[in-house]
């Protein structure tokens, strides 16, 4: 018996290849769209993938379950009443047998109505249940969010989640290992811990959500603490209810600078995935910066329009990595990449834009000289801003920034310099590029942001505005 864990870069999404080498069969739980890694690992282990199981209709990535049915002949399993496509439904108590290993479905509505967990038992010396694949119901230190369907379903789903946790999962026994659907950094849970596995006993004793034993208090707590859902989530659910398309496989074409500019003029978006310092040094005018490091796919899903053509600015060896990350969230319209990067753009004599960098000490000195001369824009979540922020900063959560700028700009003065900051710097660079695209001329970004500000011992304010 074996369990191989796969983490999707930039999404903190976890999927699993589980199986029995003796019987030569395996299943993939919550597969993502780029299924080659599962097929390769199965070949290495000498097993055949006979089942692909979605614990629920995913909102944050394109599922690969239907693709594994097409390319490997696997049965596509999912929970009851969640899919428009034909699949093998697993109701409460149904089992998927993989040689000596058995996965039993446990209907756990709450995150979504059709959600199932999978209770694992079997293997040498392990006839009793020993683990549970919890999808988006239970994570390390957190539980799934019940607010993603909207349309007034939040309260009812939160109550279902409460009962699924306390009446279905926890009674399985403290010793069971929990294999969750996400790790730290996923928007599918507000405060997921660092560990990729946990146990039901540890979570029962230490998970703050599970410590709330009153149903009404649980509902109030979880619904009041969610960050805004990425705007692509609703679209992903619609995609995953049906047969999902294969990931794009044709090579991305390199484009000369003049071709990139022509594509821009026809409506393409230049997506620059370099870090904040490189983007700030020189970038294509009108480019949007989303660094490839960190939660790239999450922010791409929050900020990009899936109907818009994309041209990538990245190192040549990272272009396919960018395309893979975008394909996982259904962004397939990558029409090319800037050949030679910014070096070729500069040599072509085309216009450049920059974003100045300000250290936290420079920001502090500028604010001391004249607090009104430099606008500070905090783009973190509401809870982060309320916990601590730079005194005098304005606040607009990053995913709302473009909408705010289309309105009144939330008090930002285009005639004055504005410096953006976040937790550690990545979101500050994204925000700076959005401001530049909106016509702000004097835009700076603060590398290190609040992390550096606190490390320098500079004063902070608390509370929301």
Short descriptors:
Oxidized Rhodanese, domain 1; globular; 6-stranded mixed sheet; about 475 residues; alpha/beta; 16 helices; 3 domains
Q: Largest sheet, described in full?
A: 6 strands, mixed
Q: Could you name the CATH class of the largest domain?
A: Alpha Beta
Average of per-residue pLDDT values: 94
CATH architecture title of the largest domain: 4-Layer Sandwich
Tally the helices. 16
List how many beta strands DSSP finds.
24
Cα separation of the termini: 54 Å
Question: For the record, what is the CATH homologous superfamily label of the largest domain?
Answer: Ribonuclease Z/Hydroxyacylglutathione hydrolase-like
Q: What is the CATH topology classification name of the largest domain? A: Metallo-beta-lactamase, Chain A
Counted up, domains total: 3
Structural class: alpha/beta
Q: Name the strands of the widest sheet in spatial order.
A: 1-2-3-4-5-6
Helix content: 25-40%
Q: Over all CA atoms, what is the radius of gyration? A: 24 Å
Q: In words, what does this structure look like?
A:
There is one protein chain. The chain has 465 residues and is an alpha/beta fold. It folds into three domains: 2-240, 4-Layer Sandwich (Metallo-beta-lactamase, Chain A), CATH 3.60.15.10; 254-347, Rhodanese-like domain (Oxidized Rhodanese, domain 1); 356-455, Rhodanese-like domain (Oxidized Rhodanese, domain 1), CATH 3.40.250.10. The chain is 30% helix and 21% strand. The chain is built from 16 helices and 24 strands. It has helices at 36-45, 65-72, 154-169, 200-206, 215-223, 233-240, 257-265, 276-281, 296-303, 319-327, 341-347, 360-369, 382-387, 401-406, 426-437, 449-455; strands at residues 2-8, 13-20, 25-29, 48-53, 75-78, 88-89, 95-98, 101-107, 116-122, 129-135, 138-139, 142-143, 177-180, 198-199, 254-255, 269-272, 288-289, 310-313, 334-338, 356-357, 375-378, 394-395, 418-421, 443-445. The strands form five sheets. A six-stranded mixed β-sheet has the order 1-2-3-4-5-6. The protein has a six-stranded mixed β-sheet with strand order 7-8-9-10-13-14. Strand 1 (2-8) and strand 2 form a beta hairpin. The protein is globular. The mean pLDDT is 94.
């Amino acid at each position: 018996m074996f369990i191989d864990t796969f983490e999707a870069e930039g999404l903190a999404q976890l999927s699993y290849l589980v199986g029995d080498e003796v019987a030569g069969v395996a299943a993939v739980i919550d597969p993502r769209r780029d299924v080659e890694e599962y097929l390769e690992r199965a070949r290495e282990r000498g097993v055949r993938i006979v089942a692909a199981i979605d614990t629920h209709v995913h909102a944050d990535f394109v599922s690969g379950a239907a693709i594994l049915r097409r390319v490997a002949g696997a049965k596509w399993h999912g929970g009851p009443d969640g899919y428009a496509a034909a699949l093998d439904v697993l109701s409460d108590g149904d089992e998927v047998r993989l040689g000596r290993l058995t996965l039993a479905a446990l209907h756990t509505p709450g995150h979504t109505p059709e959600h199932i967990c999978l209770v694992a038992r079997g293997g040498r010396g392990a006839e009793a249940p020993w683990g549970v694949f919890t999808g988006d119901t239970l994570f390390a230190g957190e539980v799934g969010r019940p607010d993603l369907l909207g349309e007034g379903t939040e309260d009812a789903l939160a109550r279902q989640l409460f009962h699924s946790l306390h009446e279905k999962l926890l009674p399985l026994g403290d010793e069971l290992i929990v294999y969750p659907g996400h790790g730290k950094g996923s928007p599918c849970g507000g405060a997921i811990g660092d560990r990729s596995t946990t146990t039901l006993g540890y979570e029962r004793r230490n998970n703050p959500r599970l410590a709330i034993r009153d149903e009404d208090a649980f509902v109030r707590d979880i619904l009041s603490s969610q960050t805004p859902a990425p705007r692509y989530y609703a679209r992903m659910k619609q995609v995953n209810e049906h047969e999902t398309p294969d990931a794009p496989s044709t090579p991305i074409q390199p484009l000369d600078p003049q071709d990139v500019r022509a594509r821009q003029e026809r409506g393409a978006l230049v997506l620059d995935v370099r870090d904040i310092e490189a983007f700030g040094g020189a970038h294509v005018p009108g480019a949007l910066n989303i660094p490839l490091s960190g939660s790239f796919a999450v922010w791409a899903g929050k900020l990009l329009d899936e109907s818009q053509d994309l041209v990538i600015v990245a190192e040549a060896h990272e272009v396919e990595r960018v395309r893979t990350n975008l394909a996982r969230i259904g962004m397939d319209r990558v029409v090319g990449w800037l050949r030679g990067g910014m070096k070729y753009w500069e040599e072509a004599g085309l216009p450049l834009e920059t974003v100045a960098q300000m250290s936290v000490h420079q920001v502090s000195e500028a604010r001391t000289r004249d607090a009104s001369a430099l606008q500070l824009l905090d783009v973190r979540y509401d809870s982060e801003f309320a916990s601590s922020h730079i005194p005098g900063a304005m606040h607009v959560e990053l995913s709302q920034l473009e909408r705010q700028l289309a309105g009144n700009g939330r008090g930002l003065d285009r005639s004055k310099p504005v410096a953006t900051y976040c937790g550690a710097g990545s979101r500050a660079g994204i925000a700076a590029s959005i401001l530049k695209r909106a016509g702000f001329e004097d835009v700076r970004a603060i590398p290190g942001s609040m992390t550096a500000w606190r490390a320098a011992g500079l004063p902070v304010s608390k509370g929301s505005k």
